[in-house]
């Protein structure tokens, strides 16, 4: 196992020393079950093979943004097994440093910390495959959900306001406010996105600077670091543990989760069990793609769909995987007249139209970037592209790469202005393609199928155009005419856009929105409260199984969800502990 150091810039501690409870999944001691398809074990109680098996109070499936704080919290009083399908972020320089942000997303290998997928809409996307989940591969922006959001979902506001700071004190920082981000802030205020709310974690109308999980040295701090708050005597974390399914005892009135089957890094099968003690549970925290996928593979979902794949039905629920949403994003590339320092999201404009405006800078400045593409973060498949999503083929990417070589190097000194639809009404769904958990399921988000989303996008693009033309931007955007003209002239063949022309033409802007839609990776839903889980995130129709992550969200919280996903892990951990300890003490 690699041994990159965990650093606070001054101290250097091998991660294995700081997190001694993290180990390879092949080291798990329980005997392996007999290989069997998902259809055969849903109605049987797995054998322990005659050997002594360790039982856990909680098995948490998915060591991501919610799973890490949840496992750390539960371990204070109970034995917890946390299973993560990927490796550790500490040993991966592409994950650890802001300067390498795009490289993880560009890596489409099986060992990458991100697993890319293409939705049926034709939009390239990614899901995390590493301890820390989305916090290990995202742009790092940290901002809380609004007070109205917390109230609408029925959370305990006092506990919410205790859970956010628990996260913030450990891994969140005030950003180094770069000149480009300062221009974005001043430009947003100039075009009327006011007031200036300064630096704050809170979700407030106007313009603000939010937190970041990158420190002042550009080093990422992920949800995996929240595991340092765990009781190390009570926690086992297995990496490269690919959970195949949740197992059930179906002999009672309701199926009861009793454990999970997982494959280790060598492909060998293992089975882990929860205790029979009251309160022990399997908790799925595998994200908005992984959680509904695992429920389906475990026999919980639409009966007809499951039977088509020969999966025995544990509980027929038509809503698993339904009403998936992704927040559509559209971007404008702004060439600068000089190089600028790299920055990810630091400033956001929160409009009352439900549109959020953000910005990044400093990518594509090297000569190498003009000749290469960088996966789903690159111009070839979205950010500079005017190719409609379903036409973003490998051939189109290759054509773009050839044409890009003729664009002036200076054109790639620049940044992106991004507009995101905060509360999309367009809905999609997730379905299994096969029973291999390592494969991506079929996902469609149906971007802009609801007319309100298209209206919001048009509003956002017009806001971006005003921002580019605002006074604070002039010092950055005064490119010489030859460069600008070359960009515009090549827009058809090279698929580079500076600003959509015809911004007074709503119909043209609607087409621009459809043709340039990309993702900001804030997809959610598929295990909605009231449909798949109850208000305590217990899976309806079965015992001892919960889902706690973004798959339960009706809307994405705040401008960027990672703060709230980590918060809900801590929040629910505390709630579960309090309730169980109360019952045991009574």
TrEMBL record:
Binding site for FAD: 84-85, 130, 243, 521-522, 550, 561-562
Keywords: Disulfide bond, FAD, Flavoprotein, Signal
Gene3D superfamilies registered for this protein in UniProt: 3.30.410.40, FAD/NAD(P)-binding domain
Disordered: region residues: 25-50
A single MF term (Gene Ontology): flavin adenine dinucleotide binding
InterPro entries with a match to the protein in the record: FAD/NAD-bd_sf (IPR036188), GMC_Oxidoreductase-Related (IPR051871), GMC_OxRdtase (IPR012132), GMC_OxRdtase_N (IPR000172), GMC_OxRtase_C (IPR007867)
Chain ranges of the Glucose-methanol-choline oxidoreductase N-terminal domain: 287-301
Keyword Protease: no
Disulfide-bond pairs as recorded: 457-513
SUPFAM superfamilies per UniProt: FAD-linked reductases, C-terminal domain, FAD/NAD(P)-binding domain
Cofactor annotation: FAD
Pfam families: GMC_oxred_C, GMC_oxred_N
Similarity annotation: Belongs to the GMC oxidoreductase family.
Classification via PANTHER family: OSJNBA0019K04.7 PROTEIN (PTHR45968), PROTEIN HOTHEAD (PTHR45968:SF5)
Name by which UniProt lists this protein: Glucose-methanol-choline oxidoreductase N-terminal domain-containing protein
